[in-house]
Amino acid sequence: MATLTTTPPSQSSTTAYKRKPLTIAKKRQYRAAYLFVLPFFVLFLGTIIVPLGYAGYISFFRKQLVGGVSFAGLDNYTRALTDTDFLTSVARMGLFLVVQVPVMLALSLFFALALDSGMTRLSKFIRLGIFVPYAVPSVVAALMWGYLYGRDFGPFAQFAELLNLPAPPFLTDQFMLFSIVNIVNWEFIGYNMIIIYAALRSIPTELFEAARVDGATEKRIAWSIKIPAVRPALILTVIFSVIGTFQLFNEPNLLRSIAPTVIDNSYTPNLYAYSLAFINQDANYAAAIAFLLGILIMALSYAVQLWNQRKENQS
Amino acid sequence: MSTLTDAEVDVARRPSTSGFIGKEPRQRTSVLLTVIMLACAAYFLFPLYWLLVASTKSNADLFSTFGLWFADFSLMENLKTVFTFQDGIFSQWVLNSLLYSVVSAVGASILATAAGYAFAKYEFPGGKALFSIILGAIMIPTTALAIPTYLLFARAELTDTYWAIILPSLVSPFGVYLMRVYAADAVDYSLIEAARCDGVGEIRIFFTVALRLLVPGAVTVLLFTLVATWNNYFLPLIMLNSPEKFPLPVGLAQWQSTAAGGSGSQALFSTVITGSLVSIIPLVIAFLFLQRFWQSGLSTGGVKA
């Protein structure tokens, strides 16, 4: 919801809604409107609202081998907030965010500006080349990079061997996070580039034609006119990165098969919730973790929004 | 999921800007910038190039020859293994992926179009409240939602069925938001009023007058849902147990963990690699079409604004 403040739906100007007895025509219109909304809303309830309510409900219970299910109050939540596995995984994603988002934003913005400036040849090929990872499922992306990183037949290890160097330590404890950062960047830079590029294309040309006449350089125009103009698009990419990062699952889960000692069950919060639900069979605690994670993500996205609005008000 | 909404945000935003402003290409090009950009594009294409090369190698050559250049050409043998391994379950996965993504995409875009149209063009009691609930749902993280959905579906004995994947994929709150924005501009009130004066019923107005105008927006929702469902891994992973119901990502991931599991199953690596290549080809093709539709959807929205 918070993201949408940047993109308000254009207000429809229906005939003024006045309190008066309903005509038959009005009634008919209401009926039609409900009919149009109904199919979506039934499924919306069944796959979003009810599951949320159900998960919220069971997160207040615990299941024991002896005594069955019993009410636990906030126990699952206090347990989560003192659970070092969970807290470590959240902190790890915080670090991931700090490393990954600036790199991704800087590169997508740079690529978009470079393509928009019209100063590159082959720009159509370049744009498509950078964008094409979007069409690759994250499972396949993680598989490919996993093989590339690997010692068995990864080209980097092969190069190193050729030069009599030790194999690069992509999949070690120390570098794994950065290896995943690289995969995520590979998947999403082109995508964000296109979003920013589309925003750049919609800036009215007059804005910088005037600056150009006044002798401003391309760099100056990019910095003072183009970047501020695509700010909403940038904020959106930040928010979606926050959402994506804290939900990280596919890439670490795939890499786990080649580096089982580095990536454990609680490497990311989502991996942890998954293993709680399906390996430990502790659905109640998993539901509490999923809830906390959702709240954290929403709070962070909201914080980004607020920060953006304050900045906008200042300037 | 978040990637899906990303794109839609952009599309949705479009009508509010003043549309495409054509820019004349400038003459000055920079060799340095071109070289830098080509190098960057090479980074993005590099894993795909490697995948292409690796899928032409036998499993033994994979380990014994240099990864970035071709050895003996065994693509055909690899393809044969991909489609015959485990009684040819791979083709089942392809069909499942197609089924899940096509049904979900068509369904999601129909549902979103009808609902978005109603929210844009009718003022009805409770409409505003319903719409804000749907907007709020956009921010709910999809994977955090997947486990609750699983728990509920397990209760309803819906897990390990095709419905377990299709039902959640049919619901695109962002699609509704997008279609509301789109319908607000694309369908003119005068058209609806004129039809009403002619005595046409509301439902018929939707199908005969509005739907035609809503198609570009609906196609956008359709294509993004298609890609998102085709690529979805987490939901089918938790919902499905039977390999014959897996979509491609879950199947490939399972082969991979068998291959990496080591002893005796090493011959699987070339199969996983070739399977990965096969699984991205339809998407890359669909994606090229998607781009064209995406842009036409965008510019139509822009003109109408």
Describe how the helices and strands are arranged.
The complex is a heterodimer of chains A (about 325) and B (about 300).
Chain A: H1 24-58, E1 61-64, E2 68-71, H2 75-81, H3 84-116, H4 123-131, H5 138-149, H6 155-162, H7 176-201, H8 205-213, H9 218-229, H10 231-246, H11 250-256, H12 269-278, H13 283-314
Antiparallel strand pairs in A: 1-2
Chain B: H1 2-13, H2 31-54, H3 59-64, H4 75-121, H5 127-138, H6 142-155, H7 162-170, H8 173-186, H9 189-197, H10 202-231, H11 234-239, H12 248-260, H13 268-304
Helix pairs in contact in B: 1-8, 1-10, 2-13, 4-7, 4-8, 4-10, 4-13, 5-8, 8-10, 9-10, 10-13, 12-13
Structure explained in plain terms:
The complex is a heterodimer of chains A (315) and B (305). Chain A has 315 residues and is mainly α. Helix content of chain A is 69%, strand content 3%. Chain A has two domains: 24-71, no CATH class; 77-140 and 167-314, MetI-like fold (Orthogonal Bundle). Chain A has helices at 24-58, 75-81, 84-116, 123-131, 138-149, 155-162, 176-201, 205-213, 218-229, 231-246, 250-256, 269-278, 283-314; strands at 61-64, 68-71. Chain A has a two-stranded antiparallel ribbon with strand order 1-2. The longest helix of chain A has 35 residues, at 24-58. Chain B has 305 residues and is mostly helical. Chain B has a single domain, classed as MetI-like (MetI-like fold, Orthogonal Bundle).
Give the gist of this structure.
Chain A has helices spanning 24-58, 75-81, 84-116, 123-131, 138-149, 155-162, 176-201, 205-213, 218-229, 231-246, 250-256, 269-278, 283-314; strands spanning 61-64, 68-71. Chain A is mainly α and 315 residues long.
